[in-house]
Amino acid sequence: MNNQNLIIYQFSSLYQILKELELNLNFKITEVLIEKNLNIETKNLNNYIIITKKKILNIQEQYILDKLPIKIFKLIEKLNIQFLKLQFNEQSEISINDYTINLNSREISFKNIKLKLTEKEVNTIIYLSNIRTPVSIDELQRKVWGYQSDIETHTVETHIYRLRKKMLKVFNDDTFLVSKKNGYQIK
């Protein structure tokens, strides 16, 4: 079953051309003529691209086809690239509790509030969230920083202190990352 969906908005001639080629393409093709129907059509889809002649406000995943003429094979190539980008972006988001981490931009977000993170902060959060039990400083040094446990350093404590401070300041959350007697844990 094909899960890539191409929605062609108010572009009937293009729809007719691509519909004839649909069996040879990697996506299901749908035509939408009325803007309010776009939301209905995309509501249950997570892997779609809308081809349109002009940008539509408040609609995600658009490919604006404003430079015509275009060779059909070039258009199909561009659409396949857009679908690859879409797939890559979907795979780059991780949900942890009520937060979403975007691995590409290294941002953690909650209710449209975003916080930029360092690479080590992202790696620490992901590691802690996968373990789900308190993790010792030595283990974090080995697994996240690649340090030997016999090295005396306060790098982990400093990073976690700063991360907790950022989470409190931006999200007013002092319980996301907690310190236990035997290590750190994502709640």
Concise summary:
The protein is 41% helix and 22% strand. With 187 residues, the chain is an alpha/beta fold.
Summarize the structure in words.
There is one protein chain. The protein is an alpha/beta fold and 187 residues long. It folds into 2 domains: 5-91; 93-186, Arc Repressor Mutant, subunit A (Orthogonal Bundle), CATH 1.10.10. The protein is 41% helix and 22% strand. It is built from 6 helices and 10 strands, in the order βαβαββαββββαααββ. Helix 4 crosses helix 5. The chain is elongated. The two termini are 38 Å apart.
Question: Descriptors for this entry?
Answer:
single chain, alpha/beta, 2 domains, four-stranded parallel β-sheet, four-stranded antiparallel β-sheet, 6 helices
Mean pLDDT: 87
CATH architecture of the largest domain: Orthogonal Bundle
Write the CATH fold name of the largest domain.
Arc Repressor Mutant, subunit A
Low-confidence stretches: none
The CATH superfamily of the largest domain is Winged helix-like DNA-binding domain superfamily/Winged helix DNA-binding domain
Topology:
Elements: E1 5-9, H1 12-21, E2 28-32, H2 36-42, E3 48-52, E4 62-64, H3 72-91, E5 93-96, E6 99-102, E7 107-110, E8 113-116, H4 119-131, H5 137-145, H6 155-171, E9 177-180, E10 183-186
